[in-house]
Design brief:
By secondary structure, the protein is an alpha/beta fold. Helix content is 46%, strand content 13%. The protein contains 13 helices and eight strands.
């Protein structure tokens, strides 16, 4: 089995979208036709749905969506900023821009219509349970599934789907590769894991030692996301060894914020992706060879 997993990371999803575009260029094939399962968290779940819908989006098309729709999705209007007190008493963003983009690009497609099995991570607030939305088991629309997996706490409201209430699966699996590994029975021919760029900003002791709930409210999300991604990476590196290929980069130019969709940062994210592709070109070639074998 060949599996693809795509991390969460908000607007930084532009990075894996461009890596996918490069793989499709080198192979001449649509990504979903080369793998047996796609697992996605948050922005990675949105990409997974785009790749696996019956009329698939290419990596290039998905990258264009980030660049065109990102500024509308992460539009911190004055009214929302004031009423949320910077996200302290309400979510930072209305989901209107996100849902509008999902509807335009995913349409009325059901998750069950995915041409390749899809796994989306979500957390059920009512049941207090980590869950997977599966294309072979859950009768939800791709719009609802993609919205639910990307409803990051403090950024967007939780998402009601039927009797359940979901938030971003990144609270337990920002790197969903472990679920793709389990789906493969622990013996994948290739487990390709695409990151969205790792954080580089330190949290010095002198700065954090006196923090309470208010100061930790925003950075704790990044800490939880980073820690869980690193844990999965370390585990799979040992379990799957060279069958696990992680394409990730440290953010040297771009912001590590989930919501910085400024033109300057979008351009920087594209440069980060280009640097990743250049530095890991041999590994991408190896992945392409296995994917097309």
């Amino acid at each position: 089995m060949k599996a693809l997993a795509i991390d969460g990371g908000g607007i930084r999803g532009l990075i894996p979208a461009l890596v996918l575009a490069e793989i499709e260029r080198r192979t001449g094939r649509a990504m979903a036709t080369m793998v047996d399962v796609i697992a996605g968290t948050s922005t990675g779940g949105i990409i997974a749905c785009g790749l696996a819908k019956p009329d698939p989006l290419s990596g290039d098309e998905i990258a264009a969506i980030y660049e065109q729709d990102g500024p509308k999705i992460f539009d911190r209007s004055l009214v929302k900023t004031v009423t949320s007190v910077g996200g302290l008493v309400d979510e930072l963003y209305s989901a209107e821009g996100l849902v509008d983009s999902l509807r335009r690009h995913l349409g009325a497609t059901r998750l069950s219509e995915a041409t390749t099995p899809v796994l989306l991570t979500v957390y059920d607030l009512e049941a207090r349970q980590a869950l997977l939305l599966r294309s072979d088991a859950d009768d939800v629309s791709m719009v609802d599934g993609a919205h639910a997996t990307s409803a990051a706490p403090t950024y967007f409201e939780p998402v009601p789907v039927g009797a359940r209430t979901f938030v971003d699966g990144g609270v337990f699996a920002i790197n969903p590769a472990v679920f793709a590994y389990a789906e493969a029975g622990g013996t994948p021919e290739l487990l390709l894991s695409l990151g969205t760029g790792s954080h580089t900003r330190p949290l010095p002791y002198k700065e954090v030692k006196g923090w309470g709930k208010l100061q930790w409210a925003e950075p704790i999300i990044d800490v939880v996301f980073d820690g869980s991604a690193d844990a999965v990476d370390a585990q799979l590196s040992r379990l799957a060894q060279d069958r696990y290929l992680r394409l990730q980069t440290r953010l040297m130019q771009a912001s590590d914020d989930l919501d910085d969709a400024s033109p300057e940062n979008l351009a920087a994210l594209r440069r980060e992706a280009e640097r990743l592709i250049a530095e890991q070109s041999a590994e991408i070639d190896r992945a392409c060879a296995i994917l097309t074998a």
